Amino acid sequence: MNHHATDAHTLVAAYALGALDDDERKDFDAHLRTCEACRQEATEFEATTARLAAAVSHTPPTAAKAQVMAAIDDVRQLPPRIPTPDAAPRIRGILRRRIVPLALAAGVAVAALGGVAVWQAQIRQDLERQAHHAQQQLDAVSVVLAAPDARTVHGRAANGALTTVVSSDRQNKATFTAADLPAPGPGKTYQLWLDHDGTMRPAGLMDQDGTVILTGNPADAGAVGLTLEPAGGSPQPTSAPLLLMTLPA
């Protein structure tokens, strides 16, 4: 591991994301056997990435199977591709593996629906856009989680949701993760806020469990808030905060 022993604690997020090389991971595994704090932190990071992956999963349309079976007799089969070692894809950790179901859904749509109907092409395009957006979100979140100065704080909202904030001064970004978040209800959405010396500034919306990048400038904020707002969000909070969690120092 190309790090001093005192730097080992800063590699927890990179370890959880699978971003360490083989030698670094082997050395860090040895470090975990003697460091209870890092073992707990690694478990929390792995749970966060799993919740993030679950938030971007997508179920293919129910009509897709019937369309595939109807079109399969007219689809020319191609010989299997045998990748060379140089062409083998590189796995970029837990987040990259978690997006496989969504990527496979887009691939099935491309192979089975091409040329069958216009609406099928639209489904393919929608899936590809969703996969691209999900990948961008995963990449943005992984940068924060793997930052050497990443700091984590956990909380619980008034409605019982478990929350995690990870922030990085170096990246000037922060992520917010929620689990067991009740449905907001018709015409409602959850809105995140950054508390700047008592002034609450909008920091993003969420309707379900998952992880988002907070908008705004977390470096100058002291806390993260969560409220229930009308669909589309509000310029200022209109309800009592469900959560006001101090950002990690």
How would you characterize this protein structure?
- The protein is 37% helix and 21% strand.
- It is of the alpha+beta class.
- It has 3 domains: 5-55, Orthogonal Bundle (Arc Repressor Mutant, subunit A), CATH 1.10.10; 63-143, no CATH class; 151-246, Immunoglobulin-like (Sandwich).
- It has a 4-stranded antiparallel sheet, with helices on one face.
- β2 (162-168) and β3 form a beta hairpin.
- α6 packs antiparallel against α7 (118-145).
- The longest helix has 28 residues, at 118-145.
- It is flat.
- The protein starts with 11 loop residues before the first helix and ends with a strand.
- Residues 1-6, 83-102 and 111-116 have low confidence and may be disordered.
- SSE string, helix = H, strand = E? HHHHHHHEEEEEEEE
CATH class of the largest domain: Mainly Beta
Q: Number of helix segments?
A: 7
CATH fold category name of the largest domain: Immunoglobulin-like
Mean pLDDT: 74
**Straight-line N-to-C gap:** 27 Å
Estimate the global geometry from the Cα principal axes. Answer: flat
Helices, strands, pairings?
Layout (H helix, E strand, L loop, with lengths): L11 H5 L5 H11 L3 H20 L7 H9 L22 H5 L1 H14 L4 H28 L5 E6 L5 E7 L4 E7 L8 E9 L2 E8 L3 E4 L9 E8 L12 E4 L3
Helix pairs in contact: 6-7
